[in-house]
UniProtKB/TrEMBL annotation, chain A:
Its EC number is 1.7.1.15. Residues 630-766 form the Nitrite/sulphite reductase 4Fe-4S domain. Residues 317-386 form the NADH-rubredoxin oxidoreductase C-terminal domain. Pfam families: Fer2_BFD, NIR_SIR, NIR_SIR_ferr, Pyr_redox_2, Rubredoxin_C. Residues 558-620 form the Nitrite/Sulfite reductase ferredoxin-like domain. PROSITE patterns: NIR_SIR (PS00365). Pathway: Nitrogen metabolism; nitrate reduction (assimilation). Residues 6-284 form the FAD/NAD(P)-binding domain. Keywords: 2Fe-2S, 4Fe-4S, FAD, Flavoprotein, Heme, Iron, Iron-sulfur, Metal-binding, Nitrate assimilation, Oxidoreductase. This is Nitrite reductase large subunit. Gene3D superfamilies: 3.30.390.30, BFD-like [2Fe-2S]-binding domain, FAD/NAD(P)-binding domain, Sulfite Reductase Hemoprotein, domain 1. Residues 420-468 form the BFD-like [2Fe-2S]-binding domain.
TrEMBL record, chain B:
This is Nitrite reductase small subunit NirD. InterPro entries: NasD-like, Rieske-like_NirD, Rieske_2Fe-2S, Rieske_2Fe-2S_sf. It comes from Sphingobacterium litopenaei. The keyword Heme applies. Coiled coil: none annotated. NCBIfam families: nirD_assim_sml.
Length: 839, 115
């Protein structure tokens, strides 16, 4: 006896959070919770996922046994209907009566239903509870056209749900002149509308609905401008209305537009009654987001325990993903001249709009809007919230975002310790760093377990990741890039382990060194390591299914599901007879032909069924696989060199062929390319290759780690005036060093960029043998070279492998009839991607 | 009211036509169905062959694997992943894929396209 009782009315997100917060502080109270819904508290923010995930199980905020374990009495499906404040007792619908010391109202809100004639027709739904979603799901089966009244955050969420339910056309009807009127401006709305339109959502703005059409069932909406739209399912999402009906009956003070009035300690007009979440009206404001609700739960729990904490408003910044489109709004998104200076960029092509509002002195960021690309949201929000100085050219903050959540000029070290990183759970930078330093968390998952950061809306996870890396680096800790959930090793560690244990198949590797059943990340990675280690035929039993599609079918997959055929043409040199064979094969199998940027010929558009016969014919004419599909040597380009060219110093073609034939088939972390030029005029563009060789008066200059692609980088000189054998010796060492130590999918240029000591270090390792590895690397490379065999030759001669090249196993001779080509300049081309699904 | 119809099994292929820990494509009643034999887990799954992302007839050529305990398939084009048991999309907002019941008897695989 003598135990004090807190009655919590409402088992929604905030009511549940209140219980958690209180239990974390004390166990002197007995908690009794009443919920009106028939299931325990769940994640309303991710309500729409209910259609996608395995039902409500993924959404629950606690385990089934949580309430019991914490000695909480939970009454579901039993709302409180009366409170006797004089006797201090509550009564539920099903007649449970309990006395209380404190009450916490967490009754949330309900959808506001505008009084439009016909709104009670069949087929009109709300969007707030699991039950609402069940009704919608059931009805949607027979619906073809949908509409949502309300173009705010929740309305768009509801519209997305209709799209997920495969409703063919959905219209969003908004009274204001733009979408999400409380979060974004007109230009941002226009960008968002365009994006949503391409995903099948039609936005009708500036529309006031006058009537819901249809007999008994909804058939459409009529608007005040005499237009109308058809719809046989309608969701109302025109705003929220706090659930204050019980509070009114009890006589608690409420606002005239609804909401239970609370002070900064979350106390209502009755000192033993508190209100938190969406039913609470603080400073004339209802906070319709979960983060402020959680903060209120913290304040109420503290106040009940006599701690001094008060609520002082809350940041309403939000970031969300609507049908794959990022939308964020932070700080004061609308403030403009003369109170602020605004900068905006708009990229109609990519569907990006960004706006930053800068203080008039140009020193601080006040707020902004991001549509289409919002990876810097966290850092920008921190900049506003912590009143951090911004760089001299703030417009730079709008670019360079892809790489990390840390834009130019704003570093994590300038962020103050008390910066709030996870606003849902109230976790600061200091707490996250502490989790890393004191509690040994080494990744975002660990930090989530320790601090709960990132367990709410999840928006802060990129920032948490950056902070973990940053803190670990500061600690001088080695950051391990582990592969995926199935392997707790870096690529390099796995390479060594596989070698020591002599593992030869994917399953052996997984069984010995990993856990679970593999995935599309570790399978190709392990396959590539197996190939680099043993250079065995990559389609050996069991290993075929662990190859990326291109490796598995020894060809690059194209739009439509056909493949390309690229025979090796070493150095780009080819005899006329072989050219004729290519022409004949291409004609026979109706393939598109093109000279590639790698000095060879690509034949596109081969059906999977035809690949073996095509290759059989090519092989018979002396061709072999060009490995255009593998993370392997691509081409060694050559210029014509001293055999014809008046400037040529050496025979660059012969040397290119020799090199291409040496390293063909060798698998590496990424593809690698080379070229040999006969003089410094550099017609073969050797300095843009992973390794490039240029003839000099005295021998060859060897350049390494160049790259074309999206971030071109010139190769650097590794050694000069060396003879052919030394050149090959250095290349063997260089390539083995790269193969053994580079991260997956890292080209040599990026590998070098990350290497401490850069080219000087690399030269020391390769030329001066500073690691003492030269001999064993040269041996390893020679073993790979000796093990080479043309994969296509093996494939066409092995009936087991060959029979895999069919589209239908139960109709092997039939081709996929969905593959479509179009005509262009007398050849065929792949038809464009199919339009997105509409059922 | 809807009536409950009885599962009608279609003979798909022989077990030896399938690929261990991989997929094959079948033509069944003019539909393309991807059939996966997840040998590591001793499980069979059948789904539509079309990837909803760019509507390519390709899922049978994807890689299977697991996410936690969930069996999944990754499309070879852009590596979108889908749960093999429920069909839900595990990456991004693509819509779910259809899944079909599978049974194996006497060395033959059967798939139920409607039930
Ligand atoms: C066919 C070709 C274009 C052409 O018509 O000329 C081509 C076509 C493709 N390139 Fe390339 N690249 C081709 C020369 C190049 C070149 C030029 C060169 O090699 O001299 C470059 C820049 C040089 C470089 O790599 O440093 C080039 C940089 C890329 C990149 C970017 C690599 C990077 O480091 O950033 C990719 C993407 C990747 O590999 O991840 C790529 C990827 C691709 C893929 C494989 C895309 C894919 O996965 O489907 C294309 C498929 C070809 C196919 O189906 O057969 N391709 N690609 C060229 C084939 C050369 C060959 O004979 O093998
Ligand atoms: C589709 C959707 C998407 C959202 N997306 C976001 C988002 O991205 N970010 C964000 O911050 N917020 C979002 N929200 C808002 C967020 O869900 C709410 O802010 C949050 O749920 C509020 O919690 P609450 O506990 O105050 O109310 P609720 O979660 O609504 O819980 C109140 C509970 O009390 C019950 N109740 C009412 N009266 C009684 C009574 N008399 N007796 C017993 N029980 C009673 C109700 O049935 C309900 O279960 C979204 C909301 C929806 C619907
Ligand atoms: S540049 Fe791009 S589009 Fe052109 S072939 Fe290379 S990858 Fe394909
Ligand atoms: S087509 Fe399947 S992921 Fe793009």
């Amino acid at each position: 006896m003598g135990e004090k009782i807190i009655v919590v009315i409402g088992n929604g997100m905030v009511g549940h959070k209140f219980c958690e917060k209180l239990l974390a502080k004390t166990d002197v109270f007995k908690l009794i919770v009443f919920g009106e819904e028939s299931i325990r508290a769940y994640d309303r923010v991710h309500l729409t996922d209910y259609f996608k995930k395995s039902g409500v199980n993924d959404l629950y905020l606690s385990d089934l046994t949580w309430y019991h374990e914490n000695n909480i009495d939970l009454h579901l499906n039993d709302p409180i209907i009366a409170i006797d404040t004089a006797q201090k007792s509550v009564q539920s619908k099903h007649g449970v009566r309990v006395s209380y010391d404190f009450i916490v109202f967490a009754t949330g809100s309900a959808a506001f239903v505008p009084p439009i004639p016909g709104i009670d027709k069949e087929g009109v739904f709300l969007y707030r509870t699991i039950e609402d979603l069940d009704h919608i799901k059931e009805y949607a089966v027979h619906a073809r056209k949908g509409a949502v009244i309300g173009g705010g955050l929740l309305g768009l969420e509801a519209a997305k749900a209709l799209v997920d339910l495969q409703i063919k056309e959905t219209a969003v009807v908004e009274f204001a002149a733009r979408l999400m009127p409380r979060q974004i401006d007109d230009a941002a709305s226009a960008t968002l509308q365009n994006k949503l339109h391409s995903l099948g959502l039609n936005c009708l703005l500036h529309k006031s609905t006058t009537q819901i059409l249809g007999d008994t069932k909804v058939a459409g909406l009529a608007f005040s401008d005499e237009t109308s739209v058809e719809a046989d399912i309608l969701i109302i999402s025109a705003g929220i209305k706090p659930r204050d009906e019980l509070a009114k009956v009890v006589g608690l003070a409420t606002g005239h537009r609804g909401g239970i009035v609370v002070d900064e300690n979350m106390r209502t007009s009755d000192p033993s009654i508190f209100a938190v979440g969406e039913c609470a009206l603080y400073n004339e404001m209802i906070y319709g987001l979960v983060a402020p609700g959680y903060e209120m739960a913290e304040i109420a729990a503290s106040t009940i325990l006599g701690e001094q904490k008060s609520f002082c408003g809350f940041d309403m910044s939000t970031k969300l993903k609507l049908m794959g489109v990022d939308v964020a709004s932070f700080g004061d998104p609308f403030i403009c001249e003369p109170d602020a200076r605004t900068i905006h960029i708009e990229d109609k092509n990519k569907g990006i709009y960004k706006r930053l509002n800068i203080s008039s002195d140009g020193k601080r960021l006040l707020g902004g809007i991001l549509v289409g690309e919002a990876s810097s949201y966290n850092m920008l929000l921190q900049t506003v919230n912590n009143n951090m100085p911004i760089p001299e050219h703030p417009e730079l903050l709008l670019f360079h975002e892809k790489a990390s959540s840390q834009p130019v000029g704003l570093g994590l070290d300038t962020l103050p310790d008390n910066a709030l990183i996870c606003s849902c759970e109230g976790v600061t930078k200091a707490q996250i760093c502490d989790a890393v330093i004191q509690q040994g968390c080494e990744n975002a998952d660990g930090v989530k377990k320790c601090t709960k950061a990132g367990s709410g809306c999840g928006g802060c996870i990129p920032m948490v990741k950056d902070l973990v890396t940053y803190t670990m680096k500061q600690q001088g800790k080695y950051i391990r890039n582990t592969i995926c959930e199935h392997f707790d090793y870096s690529r390099q560690e796995l390479f060594d382990l596989m070698k020591i244990h002599e593992l030869h198949t994917y399953d052996e590797v997984l069984d010995n060194l990993g856990k679970g059943h593999g995935c599309e990340v570790c399978k190709p990675l392990v396959s590539s390591l197996l190939a680099s280690l043993w250079n065995e035929m990559i389609l050996g039993k069991g290993n075929d299914v662990a190859q990326d599609s291109n490796d598995r079918f020894l060809a690059n997959i194209q739009r439509g599901g056909t493949y390309s055929v690229v025979p090796r043409i070493p150095g780009g040199e080819i005899r006329p007879e072989k050219l004729i064979v290519i022409g004949e094969v291409a004609k026979k199998y109706n393939l598109y032909t093109k000279i590639t940027g790698g000095q060879r010929i690509d034949m596109f558009g081969a059906h999977v069924n035809d690949l073996p016969s095509i290759w059989e014919e090519l092989i018979a004419a002396g061709f072999e696989s060009g490995h255009a599909y593998g993370k392997a040597l691509r081409t060694v380009k050559s210029c014509v060199g001293s055999t014809w060219c008046r400037f040529g110093l050496h025979d660059s073609v012969s040397f290119a062929i020799k090199i291409e034939e040496r390293y063909r088939g060798v698998r590496a972390p990424h593809k690698f390319k080379s070229a040999v030029s006969g003089c410094i005029r550099e017609c073969a563009e050797a300095q843009s290759k992973d390794f490039g060789i240029i003839a000099t008066e005295k021998g060859w200059n060897l350049y390494v780690c160049g790259n074309g692609g999206s971030k071109p980088q010139h190769a650097l000189l590794l050694a000069s005036d060396i003879d052919s054998n030394t050149c090959i010796q250095y290349l063997d060492r260089f390539l083995m060093f790269y193969i053994r130590t580079a991260d997956p999918l890292t080209r040599t240029a990026t590998w070098l960029n990350k290497m401490d000591g850069g080219i000087d270090y690399l030269r020391n390792v390769v030329v001066n043998d500073s690691l003492g590895m030269a001999e064993s690397w040269e041996k390893e490379m020679q073993a790979l070279v000796d093990a080479y065999q043309c994969e296509w030759k093996v494939a066409v001669n092995n009936p087991d492998i060959r029979k895999r090249f069919v589209h239908f196993v139960n109709a092997p001779s039939e081709k996929d009839e969905t593959v479509k080509f179009e005509e262009m300049r007398g050849q065929k081309k792949a038809a464009d991607w199919n339009a997105p699904i509409t059922y | 009211m809807e009536t409950l119809s009885i599962t009608s099994w279609k003979l798909a292929c022989r077990v030896e036509d399938t690929i261990e820990n991989g997929g094959v494509c079948l033509k069944l009643e003019d539909q393309q169905v991807a059939l996966f034999y997840f040998k590591r887990r001793n499980e069979w799954y059948a789904t539509q062959n079309e990837c909803p992302h760019k509507r390519q007839m390709i899922l049978s050529r994807g890689m299977i694997g697991s996410l936690g305990d969930k069996p999944k398939i990754a499309c070879p084009f852009h590596k979108k992943t889908f749960a093999l048991d429920t069909g839900e999309c595990l990456s991004g907002d693509e819509c779910a894929i259809k899944t079909y019941p599978v049974k194996v008897e006497d060395g033959f695989v059967y798939i139920a396209l409607q039930n």
